[in-house]
Write a structure and sequence with these properties.
The protein is mostly helical. The chain is built from six helices and two strands, in the order ααααββαα. It has one domain. The two termini are about 25 Å apart. Pfam families: DUF8056.
Amino acid sequence: MADGYRGLFGAFPYALRHGDSRVFKLYVLVGTLGTVFIGGLFLLSLVVWIGETSGAPGGSLTLSRTFIAVMGLFAAGPLLAPILLVARKHRRGFSYHPRYDTIMALLGVGFLVSIYVAAIISMPECFELDGSTVCRDPPSGPFGPVVGVLYALPQIAAISPPVIMMAAMAAGHYLLSR
């Protein structure tokens, strides 16, 4: 392979070495750490869910376990996409937009922020924890009004920010690679 590019795991140091901008090189670190963190959260949630449902027969529980794993891939995968796309661009010597690396890195950061926004939207008002009811605090601080609006949205709306950012990443790659 060309200059140390050895598949998925070799793409990260390759992209870090050959990236055209400092913003992208910083994103390689941030995106990788974000992917490891989010992947770890989903892995832990899967382990907890399997532990809580281990005595129950298969069927819908098996489907819900698979759903957690697939959602983890949908959350972590797009964080890796800018890194892998830029590594592919440099490895194959494609001629893209001069700011392709920087724009893809910023879109990756936007996707990371969209996951956080989705987590805010999907947070229930109250939930049970160890037999007691825990309720979220009312929003305060400089972002209090924004968080209040996000809390007011229905929980199903939490899927919108990541989907919109995934579409923006795909459109950005398509338009900048022409």
